[in-house]
Amino acid sequence: GWHLVLNPNTERSEMALDVIEAFTQDEVMARIFETLSFIPPKVELLDEFDPDETGPVARYSEQIQQAAEDAIPRPVTDVWPEQSSVMAQEIHAAYRGVKSPEEAMGDLNSRLEQSEADVRGQDGD
């Protein structure tokens, strides 16, 4: 996953790469799920677990797999932390009825475009 990275300054890159490689193995993913309940990147591995032996998260393997199939990756942008907050605000406003869905999505579009414009060119782009 994106939580595993190689420090470019390490003097033990071969060993570090071995560790990263280990995390791609089904057996390691399964062990991490069994001990920490971290959902494996290969959600189909959840079919192998008995909820009575593994823990409560395994009870929801069907729902987790469906969520994984329906997931949409977040956009690649430097301003995602700010944008995710803006999205939550506008969507929440629509759900609460403070704004119509059309108004909230229009405002969201404007705010997202503005946040991208604010950082455009800062890195020499």
From TrEMBL:
Tell me the domain of life.
Answer: Archaea
The name on file for this protein is: Family 1 extracellular solute-binding protein
Annotated region (Disordered), positions in chain: 97-125
Q: Where is the composition biased (Basic and acidic residues)?
A: 113-125
Q: Tell me what organism the protein belongs to.
A: Natronorubrum bangense JCM 10635
